[in-house]
Amino acid sequence: MMIDPASVAFDIDGVVADTMTLFLEIARQEFNLNSITYEDITCYNLADCLDIEPKTIDAVVSRILDGNYKMPLNPIAGASDVLSHLGRQYGPLMFVTARPYAGPLDGWVNERLHLNPASIEIIATGSHAAKVGILQQRQIEYFVDDRLETCFLLQAAGIQPVLFRQPWNREQHPFVEVGSWHELQKLLVF
Ligand SMILES: [Mg+2]
After folding, report:
1. Is 90 exceeded by the pLDDT of residue 142?
2. How far is the CA of 44 from the centre of ligand 1 (A)?
3. Whether residues 133 and 83 fall in one domain
4. For the segment 10-30, what is each residue's pLDDT rounded down to a tens digit?
5. Number of domain units in the chain
6. Distance 28 CA to ligand 1 centre (A)
7. 89: domain CATH number?
8. How far is ligand 1, taken at its centre, from the CA of residue 116, in Å?
9. Containing structural domain, residue 114
10. Distance from the CA of 76 to the center of ligand 1, in angstroms?
11. What is the pTM of this model?
């Protein structure tokens, strides 16, 4: 597969932002949950694979959504370089998140990815399924996501999913998969 850089959009959590590491860090520091590792996150619905009370999971997720944390949310390695390059040549860049509101992500994308605020757009859909309609409306042909179920929804709607490999999407699937931004860059035809 070759991706047209003028027609690609990106999920944020788990693709651009290392949100699960932040989740584990908040769980460790604020809730004393020290024994969970990144590789333990083998499913997207955290309550199904982590031995954490659902109400604690919700509390950590709320903090993440609201930016209510002191530790850093780091970009996934390579994201900043590739996106800057893409933004300069083909901007504006589009990010579509299933978060209910962009909240802290607006400032984060500018600051941590070193992208010009004028050259990015972040759309928060509030649901995974709602990503499809937005992407169709914007005539986006390729979408990079880490949630396998979303990839199936996209494919059914004629949008080419690119799965960003994570421990929580290791089931069998028919999609193009990348394990890093370096690999993703190789699919982008600059
Ligand atoms: Mg995601």
Report:
1. yes
2. 9
3. yes
4. 999 999 999 999 999 999 999
5. 2
6. 21
7. 3.40.50.1000
8. 22
9. 5-18+75-187
10. 12
11. 0.97
